[in-house]
Write a structure and sequence with these properties.
Blueprint (H helix, E strand, L loop, with lengths): L1 E6 L4 H13 L3 E4 L10 H13 L5 E6 L3 H8 L6 E3 L3 H11 L3 E5 L5 H13 L6 H12 L2
Parallel strand pairs: 1-2, 1-3, 3-5, 4-5
Helix pairs in contact: 1-5, 2-3, 4-5
Length: 145
């Protein structure tokens, strides 16, 4: 699986940790920036990773900013994206199982390294259940039209 990564300056260090963590697990990781702790605007990276996922250049995305909220909101403005910000593993798992989430976002100032890894593991180990959830996901997608 090919994973796109993006962060702002606040999320840079955690993004690097998560990218290495998933690389070691065999994922093909593509980094779309930022590449330092120099101040940048998180919407630029949320949008970019969202576009790469929506275009199929990568299968899923991982975003990191201070809280995870702003960068996920930016990604969700891209048609076809269902990005969720999670601070614990259960929501990360359920976002995929019930909502077919394709981007996970975490807050570097909210969760530590170990918890972030657990959240990422829950997200990437989950599978969409389909069934009754398919109709709901279709309704979410129809809002974009």
């Amino acid at each position: 699986m090919k994973i796109g990564f993006g962060s702002d300056h606040a999320g840079y260090e955690l993004k690097e940790i998560l990218k290495e963590y998933l690389s070691e697990k065999g994922y093909d990781c593509v980094d779309y920036g930022t590449n330092s702790k120099e101040r940048v605007d998180y919407p630029d990276y949320g949008k970019l990773v969202g576009e790469k996922v929506a275009q199929g250049e990568v299968d899923k995305g991982v975003l990191v900013c201070g809280t995870g909220v702003g960068i996920s909101i930016a990604a969700n403005k891209v048609k076809g994206i269902r990005a969720c910000v999670c601070s614990e593993p259960y929501s990360a798992m359920m976002s995929v199982r019930h909502n077919k989430a394709n981007i996970i976002s975490v807050g570097a100032r909210v969760v530590g390294e170990d918890l972030a890894k657990m959240i990422i593991d829950a997200f990437f180990s989950a599978e969409f259940e389909g069934g009754r959830h398919e109709k709901r996901v279709e309704k979410i997608c129809s809002i974009e039209d």
